[in-house]
Amino acid sequence: MLNAAPDRTKDTRPRGISVMGVILLLLIAGGVYWIIVFGGAYWENHEVKSVVHQAANIAYQQPSDAAIRDFIVKKTQEMFEYEYEEFGQRKKGYRIELHPEDIQIERNLVPPWIHISLTYTRIIQPPWGQQEKQLDFSIYVEQDLSPVKW
């Protein structure tokens, strides 16, 4: 005797949304919100860190700490410059304000190393007109300045 195929017209599984579905949906919505509001600031922090790494590499040939500070400030101003209009005049602004006194540089002679650290604040304006949020970023980079031995 052949077994009859099970009756698939009656599905007894529960229908609707589950608690795990709601939690997953909320997590995805929170992640999208975080990326929209804070993602740009963290991406810009990554770009500032790459500028500081460049400055540490330049320090191998540049003995002046003031020149390294100026390089970091000028490069970040170039990267994060924007134009706005105020009272009919076009002005320039910077999304990240860095000043030479915000950058600390320490050099060791034996072994030859350079340590560069900086701290800056980034103001975030959420797209839905909520209160501004302030993010503080700290960057620390160290670089070996000893000559390469081939």
What do these coordinates show?
This protein is α+β, with helices and mostly antiparallel strands and 150 residues long. Helices cover 37% and strands 28% of the residues. It is built from 2 helices and 5 strands. It has helices at residues 19-58, 65-79; strands at 81-86, 89-94, 103-108, 113-124, 133-144. It is elongated and about 90 Å long.
How many strand segments?
5
Write down the Rg: 27 Å
Query: How do the strands of the widest beta sheet line up side by side?
Result: 3-4-5
pLDDT averaged over residues: 86
Shape, per Cα inertia axes: elongated
Number of domains: 1
Q: What's the short story on this structure?
A:
The protein is of the alpha+beta class and 150 residues long. The protein has helices at 19-58, 65-79; strands at 81-86, 89-94, 103-108, 113-124, 133-144. The chain is built from two helices and five strands.
Notable traits:
5 strands, three-stranded antiparallel sheet, alpha+beta, 150 residues, two-stranded antiparallel sheet, elongated
What topology does this entry show?
Blueprint: H1 19-58, H2 65-79, E1 81-86, E2 89-94, E3 103-108, E4 113-124, E5 133-144
Antiparallel strand pairs: 1-2, 3-4, 4-5
Helix pairs in contact: 1-2
